[in-house]
Specification:
Blueprint lengths: L6 E6 L4 E8 L2 E7 L1 H11 L16 E6 L3 E8 L3 E6 L2 E7 L3 E8 L4 E9 L9 E3 L32 H7 L18 H8 L6 H6 L2 E5 H6 L2
Antiparallel strand pairs: 1-2, 2-3, 4-5, 5-8, 6-7, 8-9, 9-10, 10-11
Length: 224
């Protein structure tokens, strides 16, 4: 006997027919369905929602986070406009810099990898914020990937401590890797550019140095 919550499926292999019989509130019905419809019904009945993951306490100025079971991919906005940098052995303390964003992955063990740097407009960041070519070295123009050479990246057992990662990455000595004179309006070589900029106000980048690269902050985040 069929109750309100049950139905019967009859499969006739020789005839290639699948019949569903149902009794709802005393009303008996029968219909033929396709094998595809039956399979889809089974899939929907056993569908399990993906488990959610708590993000934990994120680093200050986090703009975006993607998370799976193994890692988080984070994009940070870096509000500071001065940094201690160097080119080979030449230090440039408190060097003016444009507005930057940093992308990186951090594993469940706190290991940092796949670091990227991008230059953004001097404004409150939104998905539509304009991005510019990185005017310095060690960063690829295609996706902003940072070459760290033989430098060991830090491990953050507490992920909110990754707030310090931008300053660390900027402190890594630069060489001529991925540098291009076409990435600054003045067409200067790297040494000349650094000497030219060291006493400038950060706003000078936006009037005289930076060149838009045709991308937005949304594009940078999507590449994570």
């Amino acid at each position: 006997m069929i109750d309100d919550s049950e139905f019967i499926i009859r499969i006739s292999p020789k005839q290639g027919k699948i019949t569903v019989e149902e009794n709802e509130n005393g009303i008996f019905s029968r219909k033929n369905i396709t094998a595809e419809a039956l399979l889809q019904s089974f899939k929907q009945s056993v569908m399990v929602s993906e488990p959610g993951y708590a993000s934990g306490f994120l680093p200050l100025n986090t703009l975006s986070v993607y998370q799976n079971a193994e890692e988080k991919r984070i994009v940070l906005w870096h509000p500071k406009l001065y940094a201690d940098v160097s080119v080979y052995d030449t230090p440039y303390p408190q060097f003016p810099i444009p507005r930057l964003v940093f992308g990186f992955a951090i594993s469940n063990e706190g290991k940092v990898s796949r670091c990227r740097i991008g230059v953004v407009a001097d404004e409150t960041p939104t998905p539509e914020t304009t991005m510019y070519y990185y005017p310095f070295s060690n960063v690829t123009s295609s996706d902003g990937s940072l070459c760290v050479g033989a430098n060991a990246l830090p491990i953050y057992k507490k992920q909110h401590k990754a707030y310090h990662l931008p300053a660390f990455l900027l402190s890594i000595p630069n060489n001529m890797h991925s540098y291009s004179e076409s990435n600054n309006k003045l067409g200067l070589g790297y040494r000349d550019l650094m000497e030219h900029l060291k006493d400038k106000d950060p706003a000078y980048y936006y009037s005289d140095i930076l060149i838009p690269n045709g991308r937005t902050l949304r594009d940078f985040i999507s590449a994570a």
